[in-house]
Specification:
There is one protein chain. The chain has helices at residues 41-47, 113-116, 120-133, 150-162, 175-180, 194-201, 217-222, 256-261, 263-267, 284-292, and strands spanning 2-6, 15-19, 30-39, 62-67, 82-86, 96-99, 104-106, 141-144, 165-170, 185-188, 206-210, 224-232, 246-249, 275-280, 299-303. The chain has 307 residues and is of the alpha/beta class. The chain has two domains: 2-119 and 273-303, Medium-chain alcohol dehydrogenases, catalytic domain (Quinone Oxidoreductase, Chain A, domain 1, Alpha-Beta Complex); 122-249, Quinone Oxidoreductase, Chain A, domain 1, CATH 3.90.180. The strands form three sheets. Strands 3, 4, 5, 6, 7, 14 and 15 form a seven-stranded mixed β-sheet that branches. It has a six-stranded parallel β-sheet with strand order 10-9-8-11-12-13, with helices on both faces. It has a two-stranded antiparallel ribbon with strand order 1-2. A hairpin with an 8-residue loop joins β1 (2-6) and β2 (15-19). α3 (120-133) packs across α4. The longest helix has 14 residues, at 120-133. It binds NADP nicotinamide-adenine-dinucleotide phosphate. Keywords: NADP. InterPro entries: ADH-like_N (IPR013154), ER (IPR020843), GroES-like_sf (IPR011032), NAD(P)-bd_dom_sf (IPR036291), Zinc-ADH_QOR/CCCR (IPR051603). Residues 10-302 form the Enoyl reductase (ER) domain. Pfam families: ADH_N, ADH_zinc_N_2.
């Protein structure tokens, strides 16, 4: 089968299209024919060697595709069923991947297979941040930073759905995009002292914040009221002395059941996945170059197979 293989760490050019053996599912694993795979900044970090992944490896934390043969029978997935998931720390940039069934969920009706592969990591991470870590409630004021990005555009929509008053940050070029997600108050996070702009809207500070990128975490703390909390899945950020704000670090869960529970909000149109760029599998280096620019709007997806 075709796969992108990383044989040495480095820049995007280390992503090479290779012919590799079909993965052999371990007992209990499901074989999936990959249709689409998401591209995120974590893929670039791994390619640079920052996760200590053993070489060689096939990248791709998330994908959508169809179950092959009887491999999903024990888990209740049937031959040809469209599934998607946050499958692990690699394997999705390939024609086929073997993965744990508890990381997979049926693809919601609202999503096409070509786009669904780009959703699981950021949707699960946004959902965990808004609902579990921050436990956002109706009527609270919530800050979502970098709200145009993969994680941010989903988190903003989830927080609006809860009934929170959402204040978002984004670069100027992305303000209209973030307004269209339903956010009224959008602040430029490249403006010096942007937390002060947040406090012009919420004078005591926001109740809770999801800082989706490292660069905004310390400022998100500044924009949060004493007694409030900032959650982030990204490294970095600190709490200045004297501030009573919790900084809650967390990871997105690789959880197929949670993904399945989230299907209704996609099918009802409460949360929309926005794809800004689509690349063929062999163009993975260009997809990584794009994600490393750091200004992704919504998500980037790799098209692996069209059937
Ligand atoms: N640990 C986990 O489980 C987990 C899961 C998901 C994500 N993450 C991490 O969370 C982070 C965000 O992920 P993502 O998928 O949302 O990434 P992404 O889509 O690549 O984020 C792109 C956004 O980052 C914003 N940005 C770039 N530089 C910025 C800066 N200096 N200040 C403010 N905003 C800036 C850009 O906004 P503008 O262009 O508008 O400035 C852009 O819209 C990454 O570090 C990722 O690895 C971790």
């Amino acid at each position: 089968m075709r796969a992108i293989l990383v044989e040495q760490f480095g820049g995007p050019d280390v992503l090479r299209l290779r012919d590799v053996p079909l993965p052999q599912p371990q007992p209990g694993e499901v074989l999936v024919r990959v249709n689409s795979a998401g591209v995120g900044p974590w893929d670039a970090a791994q390619r640079q060697g920052r996760f200590g992944t053993e070489l060689p490896y096939i990248p791709g934390f998330e994908c959508a595709g169809t179950v092959v043969g009887k491999s999903g029978d024990d888990a209740g997935f049937h031959d040809g069923e469209p599934v998607y998931g946050y499958i692990g720390m690699g394997g999705a940039y390939a024609d086929y991947v073997a993965c744990r069934p508890d990381r997979l969920a049926p693809v919601p009706m609202a999503l096409a297979l070509w786009e669904a592969g780009a959703l699981p990591v950021d949707l699960l991470t946004a959902d965990a941040g808004i609902h579990d870590v921050l436990a956002v409630q109706r009527g609270q004021t919530v800050l979502v930073t970098a709200a145009a990005g993969g994680l941010g555009h989903l988190a903003a929509q989830l927080a609006i759905h809860v009934g929170a008053h959402v204040i978002a940050t984004a670069g100027r070029d992305h303000h209209n995009f973030v307004h269209k997600l339903g956010v009224t108050d959008v602040i430029d996070h490249y403006e010096a002292d942007w937390p002060q702009r947040v406090r012009e809207i919420a004078p005591d500070g926001v109740d809770a914040a999801l800082s989706t990128v490292s660069a905004t975490t310390t400022d998100a703390v500044a924009a949060t009221r004493d007694g409030g909390a900032v959650a982030t899945p990204a490294p970095g950020g600190e709490i200045p002395p004297g501030r009573r704000v919790q900084l809650l670090r967390y990871q997105g869960p690789m959880d197929g059941r949670r993904l399945a529970r989230l299907a209704p909000i996609l099918d009802e149109g409460t949360v929309a996945l926005i794809i800004s760029a689509r690349f063929d599998l062999e163009d993975a280096p260009a997809a990584h170059t794009e994600v490393e620019r750091g200004h992704t709007r919504g998500k980037i997806v790799l098209s692996v197979n069209d059937d």
